[in-house]
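Record type: monomer structure entry
Structure origin: computed from sequence
Chain ID: A
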Amino acid sequence: MSSVPSPQLAPSRDDEVTESRIIANLTETIARLEARVAKLEQPPAQWLPLKAAAHDCGVEYETARTWAVGSLIEARREGGRWFVNVVSLRAREAMLVVPRRKSSC
């Protein structure tokens, strides 16, 4: 018995639409999962008073205060004192530090 090849059917328009929807849903799911993984990989928050956090990170007190007031770092105010997440302060500082070139001297 010889096998007769079946004719190749072109995908229908409905198949193409369904496939593009599936791809869009998968792409969205991947983005959400990547965001969750990135959040889980962050070190836990370490809260310190603003002055202590600035000192530990080598940042001027007023700079850290300005960042806290401007919501550029994770900070909260309890009573009359600012408390800063040291992890976010270090991350902010790292964004601004430009590596220096090694001199050839």
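Annotation 1: The beta strands are 47-49, 75-78, 81-85.
Annotation 2: The two ends are 84 Å apart (CA to CA).
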